[in-house]
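Work Package 3 (structural annotation) set out to generate three-dimensional models for the target panel prioritized at the project kickoff. During this period the team completed the workflow that converts sequence records into discrete structure tokens, so that structures can be stored uniformly alongside our sequence database. As a representative example, we reproduce one entry of 133 residues exactly as it appears in the project archive.
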Amino acid sequence: MPSLIYDAMVDGMAAGSIRFASDAFKVMLVNGYVPDKGLHNVRADVTGEVSGAGYTAGGAAVTVTVSDAGANEADIQLGGATWSASTIDATGGVYYDAGSNALVAYIDFGGTISSLNGAFTLQPSTITINNAT
């Protein structure tokens, strides 16, 4: 499953209910979750959140920003996070608005990533939205 942005994020941006400049965001780690960009709208729709030493349910606070990437493009920068001294197995990360629980993006790790009483680090990611005709 490739990484994606959820329809809920696009709808939230259009309606003004997701505000990247002022809202708080989180990323939670998942294992075995199969995202559905159209049907999964809020955090409660996500299954397979990881559990383990060093991980708190709901994930970690992150920065999510949007910037102009040039003609007809915008970049959504998804901040990274580290769970130190953790024991985790994860196949992806789900970014969401911490206030409304609206889903923003899913990052597919391309397989299972594990930590064993060590740091689990999720690197920052950027998704480019292209609106060229």
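The beta strands are 4-5, 25-30, 60-62, 64-68, 73-78, 81-97, 103-122, 125-130.
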